[in-house]
Specification:
Blueprint: H1 3-7, H2 10-19, H3 37-50, H4 65-77, H5 80-94
Amino acid sequence: MGIVERLVPDELWELFQRVVAPAPTRRQGGGRRRYGDREVLAAIVFVAASGCTWRQLPPSFGSSGPTAHRRFTEWTEALVWAGLHRLVLDELGARGELNWSRCAIDSVTMRALKGGS
């Protein structure tokens, strides 16, 4: 199993494909080929998890740091991350793997002083 498959397992990849728009098709004959979404997603996960900068991205991902950053920005603007988050929660909940009882939030009442500190 390669680094891409470790960072983006098949189950995550299947969910991601449900929320991301298909890659635009290119006219024949010009420019570089578009790096695969799964490889770029793995690069984004690596940057997020490791704390490295986009320019420090190892070449083993196949795409450059600027390419991964550009795709990250495109997907952010398209609300892909919010959609993926919602889908993961829905899938885990449907399978009974999400335990909300451990996510309780306590309510705390604080009195605000009128007129400053």
